[in-house]
Design a protein that fits this description.
It is a single chain. By secondary structure, the chain is α+β, with helices and mostly antiparallel strands. It folds into two domains: 105-110 and 120-313, Sandwich (Chondroitinase Ac, Chain A, domain 3); 317-580, Rhodopsin 7-helix transmembrane proteins (Rhopdopsin 7-helix transmembrane proteins, Up-down Bundle). The protein has helices spanning 2-13, 32-44, 51-82, 100-107, 109-112, 123-131, 133-140, 193-197, 223-227, 317-351, 360-382, 390-424, 433-454, 482-518, 527-541, 543-546, 555-566, 568-580, 584-590, 592-604; strands at 144-146, 150-158, 165-168, 177-178, 188-191, 205-214, 233-234, 238-243, 256-261, 269-277, 282-284, 288-292, 296-301, 306-313, 458-464, 470-477. Strands 1, 2, 6, 7, 8, 10, 11 and 14 form an eight-stranded antiparallel sheet that branches. Strand 12 and strand 13 (296-301) form a beta hairpin. The termini are far apart. One of its GO terms (molecular function) is G protein-coupled receptor activity. Belongs to the G-protein coupled receptor 2 family. Adhesion G-protein coupled receptor (ADGR) subfamily. It comes from Ursus maritimus (Polar bear). Residues 165-317 form the GAIN-B domain.
Length: 605
């Protein structure tokens, strides 16, 4: 373009040095020839003589601008290749920095670091960042930190204090020293004075840092225990930290107490006091104990660190499936042996005429029948297949409730029969004795079930975890009436029979083990026979059901209860066969119950 313009200029002026443009003030002279040439140039569409300089300057400007843009783009690309992305959730950018800005940006990782994995996170670095925060508080002599997710305070405490210290742990307020009134401050921590007295030899004062940290619903401070999809989580996502800075505190003679307030828990959830074990990267309960109360839980621990209250389901779906398999296998075996017991009783009635008039085997068989039907309804209820209609489900719930109460009642009647035979002994004649027992054993549960059904208490009952996932659904009591009807007609009824049976069995065991020693002129038999006798009687009065009282202690006791309770029918058959199959002399020598049965039978005759 520049060459073309120069060529045009030479043709127009005849000389490369001829000045361009028209004459003006201080310019070139005006000639008519120039006007003609300019008119021809304008008429032909060609550029004038000023064009070369203008095009040259413009081209140089565009070229210079392009070079600048290319240089800036190259610098940006090289910078993006050499610099690492500034991701706070990797835990290294804000390491050791605890200004409000850094705390806030790091706290955003509580929600970013979730199980979806959209944001790259280094959980170990982030957890270490918050664990070191208390050391920073003590080292920097900070007073308070008041942010939406973090409340912290540092207090100077004398090691020669004369009483325990109490601090509030309300999530909406900065921790502060309070009085001992637990009603005014339901969330609090008690630090025993012995903790500070143990430090008197080294220092007169210490700095105490108290932190309340909301870790949110993400993956931070979850660990392997809470990574399972069973609804386990930290209660209210709240951690409580206690620290004396670089002073290690462990194995306290008197533990500290942290009280967490909460609402009533779901029936399938359990609370456990834990602390964060940084060496394992998980929660641990070593050195901590849990005391459950109505609307609060007290944690007692022998060291200082970050504490929390774990809420975990007692029965998750995998556990429920395992327990159902164990119960079905045990109930199936019990039903087989209970059927053997009924057939054996029928055979003995046919071959032994005196057996028809004895009441003890009739009571055993009545218990066997009620337990057999209870196991049968359990199979139908648990393996019900397609979801039944509401009316059918209410009927199933009522039938299951009825045979459960019949089983409890006949176990109580077994204990009552033992009381008459072994404890009272004399004046034990009752007209139509077994008929009266049958009216109680089958009639009383019917009245209770009729009243409960009239109140509309039966229906679908579901056990759910904290994520509202159903782990087990039965035709039982409706969920809205479970708290009243269930605890009254099942738990209360069982408690009455349990207390009565326990007292009677204790008295019978005492007589079995002490009576031979008090009898003179009689050789004392081996102690294992008395032990087996008590063990056999235990199956009749329902000792296997007593294990239900221990189920709140943990999952292992639930497995033990499910196993032994489902095998009650097997134990009853073994006792029945041992009692009535051997020779009469063997029975008499091995069981006081056999002798008592004979005395009782004679009284009826």
């Amino acid at each position: 373009m520049v060459v073309w313009c120069r060529k045009a200029e030479k043709e127009a002026t005849g000389s490369a040095t001829q000045p361009c443009g028209r004459a003006g003030k201080g310019g070139r002279p005006h000639h008519r020839a120039w006007d003609q040439r300019d008119a021809q140039t304008q008429g032909s569409g060609q550029r004038g003589p000023d064009c070369p300089r203008m095009m040259t300057l413009r081209a140089l400007g565009v070229l210079l601008l392009s070079l600048l843009l290319l240089w800036a783009s190259g610098m940006e690309n090289s910078r993006s290749q050499t610099e690492k992305p500034r991701n706070v959730c990797l835990g290294s950018i804000n390491e050791g920095q605890y200004e409000s800005f850094h705390l806030g940006s790091t706290a955003e990782c509580f929600t970013k670091c979730t199980q979806s994995g959209n944001e790259p996170c280094n959980l170990e670095n982030l957890q270490r960042y918050w664990l070191d925060f208390e050391y920073h508080l003590v080292k920097s002599h900070s007073n308070t930190v008041n942010m939406s997710f973090l409340k912290a305070a540092v207090q100077n405490v004398s090691t020669s204090i004369s009483e325990d210290l109490f601090f509030s742990l309300t999530s909406s307020q900065v921790p502060g020293q309070v009085t001992e009134d637990e009603h005014a401050y339901p969330d609090r921590v008690r630090l025993p004075r012995s903790l500070f007295e143990s430090l008197q030899s080294n220092r007169s004062e210490v700095l105490l840092a108290i932190t309340i940290l909301d870790v949110g619903p993400g993956n931070l401070f979850k660990g392997p225990q809470l990574s399972r999809k069973d609804g386990s989580h930290v209660l209210n996502n709240r951690l409580v930290g206690l620290s004396l800075g670089s002073i290690p505190v462990s194995r306290l003679a008197e533990p500290l107490e942290i009280t967490f307030s909460h609402q009533h828990l779901p029936p399938n959830m359990a609370l456990n006091c834990v602390f964060w074990d940084a060496t394992k990267g998980d929660w641990s309960s070593t050195g901590c104990s849990t005391e459950l109360r109505a609307k609060r839980t007290v944690c007692r621990c022998d060291h200082l660190t970050f504490f929390a209250l774990l809420l975990k389901p007692i029965l998750d779906q995998d556990t429920v499936k395992s327990l159902i398999r164990i119960s079905q296998a045990g109930c199936g075996a019990s039903m087989i042996f209970l059927a053997f017991t009924i057939v054996l009783y029928a055979a003995l009635r046919f071959y032994r005429l005196r057996f028809k008039s004895e009441d003890a085997p009739k009571i055993h068989v009545a218990l066997s029948v009620s337990l057999f039907l209870l196991n049968l309804t359990f199979f139908v209820n648990v393996g019900q297949g397609p979801e039944p209609r509401d009316a059918a489900c209410r009927a199933r719930g009522g039938i299951f409730h009825y045979f459960l109460l019949c089983t409890f009642t006949w176990m109580g009647l077994e204990a009552f029969h033992l009381y008459l035979l072994v404890i009272k002994v004399f004046n034990t004649y009752f007209g139509h004795y077994f008929l009266k027992l049958s009216l109680v054993g089958w009639g009383l549960p019917a009245l209770i079930v009729f009243g409960t059904g009239s109140a509309g208490s039966y229906g679908r009952y579901a056990i759910r975890d904290q994520r509202n996932v159903t782990t087990l659904e039965l035709c039982w009591f409706r969920e809205k009436t479970a708290d009243s009807a269930l605890y009254t007609t099942v738990h209360g009824y069982f408690l009455v029979t349990f207390l009565f049976s326990a007292v009677v069995l204790g008295l019978v065991a005492w007589k079995i083990f002490t009576l031979p020693r008090a009898t003179t002129g009689r050789e004392q038999g081996p102690s294992w026979k008395g032990f087996l006798t008590v063990l056999g009687l235990s199956s009749l009065v329902g000792v296997t059901w007593w294990l239900a009282i221990l189920t709140p202690l943990g999952l292992s006791t639930i497995y033990v209860f499910s196993l032994f309770n489902s095998l009650q029918g097997v134990f009853i058959f073994c006792w029945f066969a041992t009692l009535y199959f051997p020779s009469r002399s063997a029975v008499t020598s091995s069981s006081g119950t056999g002798r008592a049965d004979q005395v009782h039978t004679t009284s009826h005759e």
